[in-house]
Amino acid sequence: MSMPLVLASGFTDVRPGLIFWTLVTFILVFAVLRWKAWGPILALADERERQITGAIEAAKRERAEAEKLLLEQKMAIADARREAAELVRKNQAEMEHFRDEMKASAQREVEALKESARRDITEQQKKAVAELKALSVDMAIDIAQKLLGEKMDDSRHRALAQQFVREVPAEDASKTPRA
Question: What is the number of domains present in the chain?
Fold first, then answer.
């Protein structure tokens, strides 16, 4: 038995036939891949690039919209705070005005009560003076009757009393005590 003799060749040995068939195989694989795989792969890559670009643009739009909404929310919060502060200020002003009105009303009532009390005191003084004059007249008539010893009729008594009252000096209104 004879064995075919295989020549061992080194890795660095140049063999033109192997090079030729390697190049032919490479070109055929390259052509088939370019014809069948390269187009769809590039189409998929382009589609994926468009999807990514669209997603980035959509994200930018959504971010801009979110920032716009955030700004609107901040403005709404600021407006709400301003309105709340304005309401508080108005309520304080209204309460101050109400308090001032109540104070003025109470002051008017106090003044009215004082004036009413002064009128009542003046009326009571006048009544007391009138009663005192009437009592003085009656006392003067009784004293005069006793001193004169004569009886006078009622009209004569009244005329004499009236004369006595006119002679009694009128009391000065400025000397009357006030409350």
Answer: 1
Give residue-wise pLDDT tens across range 143-166. 777 666 556 677 777 777 777 777
Structure tokens at 110: 């106090």
Is 92 part of any domain?
yes
CA distance linking residue 46 with residue 54, whole number of Å: 12
| Residues contacting 150, CB < 8 A, separation 6+ | none
Predicted confidence (pLDDT) per residue in 75-99, tens digit: 999 999 999 999 999 999 999 999 9
Q: Is residue 1 part of a domain?
A: no
Residue 177 lies in a domain: no
Tokens of 20: 């030729």
**Domain boundaries, position 82:** 33-170
Reported pTM: 0.39
